[in-house]
Amino acid sequence: MTSTTEVVALVGVGILLTALYLQSESFVDPLIRGISIQSLLLAVLLGWLAWTERSIDLALLAGLAVVVRALFIPYVLRRQIRAFRWRLREIHASHRVTGHALAAVALAIIAWFVFQETLASVFPQPGAALPFVLMIQGLLMLATRSNTIVQVIGYLEEENAVVYAGALFAQAFPLFVEVVVFLDVLGVVLVGVILSIQRDVTGTPEEASLEELSG
Amino acid sequence: MIAFTPLLGLYVLVVAPSAAAILAVIPNDTVSELATRIGSVVAFAAACALLASGASGRWGPYLGLDPLSEVFLFMVTGIYATSSWYSRGYLRSISRPFLTSQIYYALLSAFAFAMISVLIVTDLGLMWIGVEATTVASALLIVLERKPASVEAAWRYTLVASAGLTIALFALLILYTATGTLDGFALAAAPPTVTLPIEMAVALALVGYGTKVGLFPMHTWLPDAHSEAPSPISAMFSGVLLPTALYAFLRVYRVLPTPVPPLVSNLVLAFGVVTALVAAFLLQRQRSFKRLLAYSSMEVMGLAVIGIAVGGVALYGALILLVAHAFAKSAAFYCAGNVLRGAGTNQIDKIRDLRGTMPWTGSAWVVAGAAVTGAPPFGTFLGELLIVVGALASGAIWVAGVVVVAILVAFLGVNSQIGRMVFGEADPETIPIPRGEDTGWGLAYLNVALAFAIGVAALPYLTDALRQAAVLLGGSLP
């Protein structure tokens, strides 16, 4: 019989691996697939917890993770790539990915230790540090990448971290489902509206200096 | 005749901006403009009535008021009202807006509604939703003028602010797990025993909400968004959005008993000091007058955070500073909007002799510039003076020194640039402003007059509420 602890540990390792993979990739399409897989893994965990604890809220969160973050947003992002082939790879990031990967591993270890030192007394659950580590990974991606699509992926990773944390140690958090729905709405606004405005305002790819934000 | 009750005031505060937002989408310019103006004035009247009633308490599980929220409601609805009235002239000057005026007005009211919702709830989770809703409502307003730089600004704003707010949400998860509740009012009334996880939660909330407040180094969205947004929205960003985010942090900060544990208060102080200094020096290099004002707002937020960290009378000073700054800075942004509308550029070097070409706007800008940088006798001066006095009283002489340096550097930077634009002689490089463009300055005078009044007189109800709010937060009075 598979125990919840085993599922949490297995999925946690998978999520951590996808997070580290995302830091080391400069091609955009694999990045989109990566975040999609990470969201699916999270959905598996949420689904398992929903099943074992008979929680409708967790089932809803699992559904949202699949529909919005594993399918819909990746689909929209992939359409952006199809429309603009030059978006397939980050323009300036290729020579920095090794550094990103090393920084990601180092930060993951530091975040783990910080969590153990400060928060482990309140969160004794196995793997409780992983959402914290995932949040730091998302922040690293947002801070170091300039490609707009990759930044959306960083945002989705942040959201996954919050949902992961909520599922592991704050299931009774009031309005948690509403909060996640809100974050998903914001993700859809980010992707659907601003990317399309960017295309409308900046026009052709040649004019799209915004593709890589500076400063 | 219906008697006014606090609950009625709360309902009006919720209904007025939301009804205005709904009515604004009716495809008729006059209706949407009128709905917004009426909605904003009604909301402001409700906030004033609540301030005058001095009502404190809670209604149901989620709604609540105290002097702190009433002061902030007064600020938010006041700037919402003046920005609504200022918008018409500004919208007419935009040749190819990205949004229709109906959508603009609807989002403006939705933005105000989101800020109001932060201020009337007791639950920290709902407060977080309100702060996040301000991002959703205001992001599209930044791209109104359809410039590539506006899109970049909107993008950065949405992404950076949202990333920060996810950290704040993480902080709330930790706080909830450690205390079992997110009721901000209940936690403040009976603070939990301080533990490392609770301190960690407050520290994460500082980083998270601090992103939206514009604290260094999470401030990167602020200068872009403030400078690229249309001026009435810039006024709301600088005047009330940043303080609203600070309010959300204050509610988490209040979970800690007074005196606040040194680990947290020193962290808050460090963020405030660095932000004030960095902003004061960065604003010297600005070539756009709207970015200049944006960095000035960042400096003021740094000073307010210092006041919060120092506590005592400095906390009272921080609250006065926030209120006076909101009105003064909105006035400065209305003047900036007038100049932008007349000259078609926001470059400081291209603007000269406003004294001759836009005498009313020019003079209002000089006064507003002095007001935002803490010149006596404006309310900002009083607030900054109390922060310095509070720092000296607490023995933190170096903090007082840093505050004085930041104030002086920012004062010189902002006023010298505004002075050049207003009193400088026109030359072939400057852009001539056609006659008849000097309009829309009345609201600037109105708001700067309020910033003046806060500095020179004890205003009915407002001063009392400010004093009560300071005491509520653990501060003391002079």
Largest sheet of chain B: 2 strands, antiparallel
Counting structural domains of chain A, the number is 1
The total of helices of chain B stands at 19
Radius of gyration of chain B: 21 Å
Estimate the global geometry of chain B from the Cα principal axes. globular
What is the string of helix and strand elements of chain B? HHEEHHHHHHHHHHHHHHHHH
Q: What's the pLDDT, averaged over the residues of chain A?
A: 81
Helix-strand category of chain B:
mainly alpha
Number-wise, the strands of chain B total 2
Share of residues in helices of chain A: over 70%
- N-to-C span of chain A: 53 Å
Question: For the largest beta sheet of chain B, what order do the strands appear in spatially?
Answer: 1-2
Give the largest chain-chain interface (CB within 8 Å).
Answer: A-B, 46 and 43 residues
Strand content of chain A: under 5%
Radius of gyration of chain A: 17 Å
Shape of chain A: globular
Largest sheet of chain A: none
Query: How many DSSP H or I helices of chain A?
Result: 7
Helix content of chain B: over 70%
Question: Any low-confidence stretches of chain B, pLDDT <50, length ≥5?
Answer: none
User: Strand tally of chain A, please?
Assistant: 0
Report on the architecture of this protein:
The complex is a heterodimer of chains A (215) and B (478). With 215 residues, chain A is mainly α. Chain A has one domain. Chain A has helices at 4-23, 28-53, 56-83, 97-118, 129-144, 148-169, 176-202. In chain A, helix 2 (28-53) runs parallel beside helix 6. The radius of gyration of chain A is 17 Å and the shape is globular. The relative contact order of chain A is 0.14. Mean pLDDT of chain A is 81; it is low at 204-215. Chain B is an all-alpha fold and 478 residues long. Chain B has a domain at 270-478. In chain B, 74% of the residues lie in helices and 1% in strands. Chain B is built from 19 helices and 2 strands. Chain B has helices at residues 6-24, 29-53, 67-92, 101-119, 124-142, 148-179, 184-189, 196-213, 221-228, 231-253, 262-282, 289-310, 313-343, 354-357, 359-372, 379-393, 397-423, 442-456, 462-472, and strands at 57-59, 63-65. In chain B, strands 1-2 form a two-stranded antiparallel sheet. In chain B, a hairpin with a 3-residue loop joins strand 1 and strand 2. Chain A binds chain B through residues 118-119, 121-123, 131-132, 135, 138-139, 142, 148, 151, 154-155, 158-159, 161-162, 165-166, 169-170, 172-175, 178-179, 182-183, 185-186, 189-190, 193-194, 197-198, 201-202, 207, 209-210, 213, 215, and chain B through 98, 123, 125-126, 128-129, 132-133, 135-136, 139-140, 143, 146-148, 150-152, 154-156, 158-160, 162-163, 166-167, 169-170, 172-174, 176-178, 182, 195-197, 200, 220.
